[in-house]
Structure formats: C-alpha cells, structure tokens
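Annex B.
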Amino acid sequence: MSTILITGGHSGIGLAATRELAAKGIDIVLAGRSPERMQSVAEQLHAQWGVVVRTLALDTSSLASVRAAAARLRAMREDGGIDPLIAIVCNAGGRFDGAVSYSPDGYETTFATNCLGHFLLVELLLPSLAEGGRVVYTASGTHDPDSVDGKMVGAVVEPDALVLANIGKNSDKAKDSGKALSAGKRYSTSKLCTVMYAYELDRRLRRTGSSVVSIAYDPGSVPATGFLRGMPTPIRWFSATPLMKWVSKRIGVTTSDVEFSGASLAALATAPDYSEHSGEYFQANDGTLASTRSARLSYDKRRAAKLWDDSKQLVHLSATEEPAQLK
Ligand SMILES: NC(=O)c1ccc[n+]([C@@H]2O[C@H](COP(=O)([O-])OP(=O)(O)OC[C@H]3O[C@@H](n4cnc5c(N)ncnc54)[C@H](OP(=O)(O)O)[C@@H]3O)[C@@H](O)[C@H]2O)c1
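Protochlorophyllide reductase: predicted structure tokens.
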C-alpha cells in the first residue's frame, strides 16, 4: 500500500484530488488547519473506499506548525501508522485580499502561506518520500504576466523572497507604483515562486542523482471552490455562473472544473504517464491536461537558486534539517 500527503485536501481542487486518490485505493494524510472539516472528509473517504485517511494539523503560514507537522508525520511512519509516502502534494493556498497582513513569523501572509510553508515542508519531508516519489506543487496560470490570467489578476513582480516576505514593511522595492503591492500581485508572484521552487527542486534532485520527481501544476481557473472567499458575494456568485465561464473562455482564460482539475492533480501525483516529467509545468485547460511552457521568468536559474537560498534563510533551515538529496 502507499500513502499521499496533501495540503488543503479537504476542500476545492484538493478534495476532488483526494476523492480520486481514495477511489484508487491510496491512503491519504490530509494536512491542514481545519481539523473538523478534515476529520469529516476522512470519515467519508474511509466509509466509501475503505482507505486509511489520517489528519495532520498544519498551518502552512506558520513555520512552527510546519515543523510540528513534519515531526508528527515522521512519527506516524515510524510507528507503522502510515505506509511509505509516494507523493507530497503542496496544494493549500489562496489570495489574501484586504490590507497586507503577516504570518506568526512576521512574513507577508500570501508568501508565507503559499511559498515558505510548503518550501519548509518539502525540505523536512523529502527523506520520507519513497524511491521515485513525487512532489507536486499547485501553482497558477496567473504566474505568467503574458497570459490573460496573469493580466487579469495582476502582473508578477521580482521573485525576491527577502522582499516578498517583508512586503509593506519598509522596502521600496516591494512597492508597486507608489502603493503597497495589490493582493492580486502578491498572489500571482507567490505562484511564480511556486513554479520556480518546482524547477529548482528538480535541478537539485537531478544533481544528487535522486529519483524523486518534481512537477508544477496550474489547475486552471476554477471558480466553484473556496478560492474567492475574500471577494464580495456578488463577484463570487457571478464568477461561478455559466456566463462567466463562457466569457472567460472567449477572452482566453484557462478554464476548468473542480472535478477535472482535482483528477489531474491526482494523476500528476500517481499516474505512470508523468514519472518522466520532472521539472515540467502542467496545465489543466478545458478538459485537457498538458505539459506546457510557463512564464519566461520562471526559467531563470540564477533567480531560482537565489529564491531557494533566501527561502532557506527565511525558514531558518538548519544543517541537520536539510536533506542529503538537496545538499
Ligand atoms: N480556484 C482557482 O481558480 C485556482 C486557480 C489556480 C490555482 N489555484 C490554487 O489551487 C489551490 C487550491 O485552491 P482551491 O481553488 O481549491 O481553493 P480552496 O477551496 O479555498 O482550497 C484552498 C485550501 O488551502 C487551505 N489553506 C489556506 N491557507 C492555509 C494555511 N495557512 N494552512 C493550511 N491550509 C491552508 C484551505 O484550508 P481551509 O479550509 O482551512 O481554509 C483550503 O483547504 C490553491 O493553491 C490555489 O491557489 C486555484
């Protein structure tokens, strides 16, 4: 038997992926910050498919929570509570509208939640992955400023971890036309960083001869999830209408539905078809899942290496925490 750890697997695209995985007989660790909702999903999946579903308290915006979750996961493995991990699916995330806010560690919430938490989780749990295991990152087409998605949400800024973590504090570099960076730009830039983490992880794994696979994924625009929860109700309602989907397709937005995007995420984490696609970016668009080009900037190796090293510094990664596959 095998197990997959997924963050944010109790709702939206993550839940659709989790259902697909459970239907294939794969055990699951649901990692997130909503214990009751995770428990309810765990019971449903176990009742329907007979799989083992464990829950793991994890707030990706808190470094202490990530470290505690990684320690509990390792303990679950050691006491035989779960089978070897065949994938880590970094799916939790969101856009955080309103004034800039900060994580318990004092980092800007979007960057802390979408980027640093998963960065640290992967560093800590890489040794728990089975041979040929996979790390799949849910990114977003908004990371590409040349795409319609990117233009609508807000063009990315420089993927500089030290600046992004401190947006709105005292860095002029993190300002956009004299104003604090918009929520949309904070989000799209966090997803550019996510794609760059996936590519940089692949490069580092290849250097050490690891068999682990690293993939970035854009699930497409899927309005019927909790993603727009920070938006006013009329916008949330309108964005989920067939008319909005029709308009989105007409203007070139990547569109999908929650079942297809979830099933695609599950496939990237498990299907043999994707085992040779480490370092690639996949996109779900109108019922098709395909490897495609990501934003030009995402292929910048120098920026990605700096992003990685700065992220290590921001999460205070110690030498003993860094896995041999990444040294
Ligand atoms: N929907 C779209 O159009 C779209 C498009 C491109 C990319 N994406 C990406 O797809 C992923 C899933 O989003 P979704 O659309 O399925 O929305 P969703 O239903 O809101 O799911 C987001 C998940 O992330 C979890 N999460 C948020 N902050 C967290 C934190 N600090 N710690 C742990 N978990 C946290 C949420 O948990 P709680 O329930 O506890 O809040 C929830 O389970 C996200 O990474 C999103 O950026 C979505």
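DSSP finds eleven helices and ten strands in the chain. The radius of gyration is 18 Å. Further annotation is deferred to the next reporting cycle.
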